[in-house]
Design goal:
The complex is a heterodimer. Chain A is α/β, with parallel strands linked by helices. Chain A folds into three domains: 84 residues, SRP54, nucleotide-binding domain (Four Helix Bundle (Hemerythrin (Met), subunit A), Up-down Bundle); 185 residues, 3-Layer(aba) Sandwich (Rossmann fold); 146 residues, 434 Repressor (Amino-terminal Domain), CATH 1.10.260.30. Chain A is 56% helix and 9% strand. In chain A, helix 2 runs antiparallel to helix 3, helix 3 crosses helix 4 and helix 20 packs antiparallel against helix 21. The longest helix of chain A has 20 residues. Chain A is globular and about 80 Å long. The two termini of chain A are 22 Å apart. Chain B is an alpha/beta fold. Chain B has a domain of 190 residues: P-loop containing nucleotide triphosphate hydrolases (Rossmann fold, 3-Layer(aba) Sandwich). Helix content of chain B is 50%, strand content 12%. An eight-stranded mixed beta sheet of chain B has the order 3-2-4-1-5-6-7-8, sandwiched between helices. In chain B, helix 12 links the parallel strand 6 and strand 7. In chain B, helix 4 packs antiparallel against helix 5 and helix 9 runs parallel beside helix 10. Chain B is elongated. Classes of the chains: A alpha/beta, B alpha/beta. At the A-B interface, helix 2, helix 6 and helix 9 of A face helix 4, helix 8 and helix 11 of B.
Amino acid sequence: MAIFASLSEKLSSSIKKISGKASLSEKNIQDTLREVRIALLEADVALPVVKNFLSDVKDRALGTEVSSSLDPGQQFLKIVRNELELLMGEKNESLDLKDSPPSIIMMAGLQGAGKTTSAAKLAKYLKIEKRKNIMMVSTDIYRPAAIEQLRILSEEVDVDFFQSRASQKPKDILNAAIAAAKKQFIDVLIIDTAGRLHIDNEMMSELKDLTAVANPAELLFVIDAMIGQDAVNTAKVFNDSLPLSGVILTKVDGDTRGGAALSVRQITGKPIKFLGVGEKTDALEPFYPDRLASRILGMGDMLSLIEEVERKVDKVKADKLASKVVKGKRFDLDDLRDQLQQMKNMGGMSSMLEKLPGAASMAHLAQNSQVNNQFDKMQYILDSMTPHERKFPDVLNGSRKRRITTGSGTSIQDLNRLIKQHKQMSKMMKKMKGKGMQNMMRNMSGMMNQGGNLLGKGFPKF
Amino acid sequence: MKFFSRKNNTEKSANDLAQEKGSISSRLRNALKRTRSGLEDIFAGKREINAEFLEDLESSLIMADIGAQMTDEIIQSLTQSLNRNELKDIDSVKQALRTFLISSLKANASESNISNTEKPHVIFVVGVNGVGKTTTIGKLANNFKKEGKRILLAAGDTYRAAAVEQLQIWGNRIDVPVVAQQTGADSASVIYDAIESARAKDIDVVIADTAGRLHNKDNLMEELVKIKRVASKLSDNAPHEVLLVLDAATGQNALSQMSEFHKAVDVTGLVLTKLDGTAKGGILISLAKQFPVDIKYIGVGEGIDDLKMFEAELFVDALIDF
């Protein structure tokens, strides 16, 4: 989920340059502004949006706030951050579904933006997270097999599907589907529409008609995160012609810098409600704009990480470990094994690193390098030990080590490294006074640094 | 500026083209017409060449997705010529820009259609999700068919729901056989079967669809490498072409797409789709500069005849509106 990572990197490096200067002057802002401008443009933020943004930042930077007690670096960072937050909106906006069912959700967008896939993901999300009774229908009579695609996906996510045919008129399909949804006491009817160019007047007016018939609770504009400067034209026309209620940004799992998020938000004024982060039907995430602003500025997506840790870490085991540490008990290899397992549950090292400040580039490294393999290896070694050996690592002698490495297909060196790391970790554990999350993270960083030094540099402390 | 030496050549071929392909080019120009905006206004009227003009020009180039860095290079190069008094008025700036853009693309414009004599000629169509691979295949097959070639399609996108059906509908529409297995089948084996069957049936061209994949997903790119390896078992030269399909609306990420797909399967040609929208596809300029790849086709509409050979002059003229 490499969202906006490169944009964050760029911006944090250009802002770093300003840190440590005595005061914000026209001159030193100018240089940084220029760099921020290039960073934003390279990230495909639309030029008019970039211009607006920079002029706001400049106005505020040169205004009254300069004289506050913060140092210039912090000062500028705060201003850029505030402006970014203003631009992105402040909180996650969820779907606003009507009380009287069926609530209608309609998808609109260009060809290939990912409307059909997003419809299926949304259906699954609402079915599982909100316990809604869903029906889907396709009004895409144009693209070959578009209706069939939605039918297959409906089956996959196990929701009702209203069968339409390419020979029907979209409006007729819609009316019939709404009637069927009412009859079957459906909570939410999701309508997929054909992809269309914003300058295709005929198709745009078809969409207007469909919107008038459906009166959707949510009309979601689906847009590809990899879109370039044309985001301005597209988003503007769709927004001007249709009562959009929100945006789904798709293909965010690519390596795009994600400037489209800024552009679309600024141009439509509508909230980005979801991100599409993969091809599977559960790869849909609610979008948190305030977190994104922090992330772009290199503060990382700590909130997301903490939430994810909370969700996926086995609470009981984590508490057990924490209490062990607090009581000053030994941290044995069983505990290490549990921790490795928990980390795996969170999607491995690279997925965690992405969310940490300044670590986005390392995440890429971790993905490509052998870090995850290394953790796998550790796991194999630990699995090949007897419970007694894990509890009392001191009993490991030459013969036991040979047995373990043969059994796990690793080398004595691997085993020795693991034991050394474990020792260092237990030392660290003793120093900790049960600060929970922070400490857990820090000791992971300890593991990383000693894990063959693959990542070179240290881990940011926070 | 080096490109001045090529000016005469370029202009001559532009004239030839205009005469030879009058109707096609005007149709194409119509389709591309919406692509312009910004740049034509810059050159309209008799503006003074000053900092403000250059800034406007810079903005327009950026808005055309030419990219911040490439734009910088162009503006600097123009500024130098202006300082040396080589360019005197708006028209000469426009001309210099046109020549520069055309010459950047010219080396990459593909002249021939199929140069290979081996049968069947195997074409892989690859790209990220939603760029228009399957639609491009339908149009491409239609073009080949009109040339009298015998075509066979391979439904290599075995992942996306109804992708196989989508290609089969295209096959029916233009009356071309489609080799397919069910969704979830091994893509490499579908394509292998298709090539084998094409050999038996004396088919000229096999066009293989592949599943859309994001270029940063190592495992999916690895799958593509495998598909290529399997195809080459039937003929050392297969696939003879690997076409990367790019959406004209894509921004700077197109460079990354090109680079990753090229690394994996040696892209031989580009197809730029959806040029009938307002997207300008300016990213081609940077792409052409960085990668030695043919720019083969452009997609200018949803109709079956809306896939055209790429022509640098027409493309650039649509971009800056001559």
